[in-house]
Amino acid sequence: MSAGKILVSDNQGNYLLKFLGDVRVTLCGSLNRHMETIFGSHDVKKVVVDMLEAEGLDSTTLGLMAKLGMYCRKEYGINVQVFCQNQSILRTLDCMGFDEIFDIIQEVPAIDAELHSIESVSSEVDEIRRQVVEAHKLLMELNPDNSKEFTDLIRALEADQ
Fold first, then answer.
1. Range 101-125 burial, b when 16+ CB lie within 10 A, else e
2. Percentage of the chain with pLDDT > 90?
3. Most CB atoms within 10 A, among 57, 58, 81, 126?
């Protein structure tokens, strides 16, 4: 798998996040910071996550995606649109219950956006641990069946704090 990268675009309340390669916890500080920018906006019309070139997502990335989906639905009354054709990622999204908060679309869209790399954020170990715990708690909130997968991890990370 190729190293992950996240590209973003914001055009008058239309937000696009494009995942490339293997998106892992190392990018989550930057992803979380960008999501806070979206959450701080009062004019969010559409949020799209393009996973067409994603090869893999770790559970922390999935937890942040749950955070994005839950927030957009609650605060803006919209579902995040996710474009994905990777069968492995689609199975993961389905098993974890993302179809409840995302509009998952397998067709290739015509997206015309000027993309730029997400702002790089280097986080302290404690901040990364906090983000990992939050992400996994959100996955458990999204679908109670996820709790058996993540309870031990959360306990271990919280014990280290």
1. bbebeeeeeeeebeeeebeeeebee
2. 51
3. 57
